[in-house]
Design a protein that fits this description.
The protein is mostly helical. The chain contains three helices and no strands. Helix content is 54%, strand content 0%. The chain is elongated. InterPro entries: NADH_UbQ_OxRdtase_ESSS_su.
Length: 104
């Protein structure tokens, strides 16, 4: 095998091993004992929201309300509903009664 062929066959394998190892850095943040890594606030201090938080709250919950409205007002496209309406219209056109009467 030539030197060029050997280089091309080994390089992707070495690169895959380097990527898998993650670049020699710590794989996680050290635990601090605080919830979400935030230290408790001093009494009377107010928490400052990060820039992404209001966008996430309004965007996520707003989209959930919008999706709920879409599902609620979605047109009925069921084949059984269509067949019922079609049969009802054809029976009405022929002069037949559509409603069932109670038998006593």
């Amino acid at each position: 095998m030539s030197a060029i062929a050997r280089t091309f066959t080994r390089t992707p394998f070495r690169r895959a091993i380097q990527i898998r190892r993650g670049g020699h850095h710590e794989g996680y943040n050290q635990p601090t004992g605080y919830l979400f890594g935030e230290k408790p606030l001093a009494p009377g201090a107010k928490r400052v929201k990060e820039d992404w938080e209001p966008l996430m709250y309004y965007g996520f919950f707003g989209s959930m309300v919008f999706a709920t409205a879409l599902v609620y007002y979605k047109p009925d496209t069921n084949v059984h509903t269509w067949a019922y309406r079609e049969a009802k219209a054809r029976m009405a056109a022929r002069g037949e009664t559509v409603e069932y009467k109670k038998q006593e």
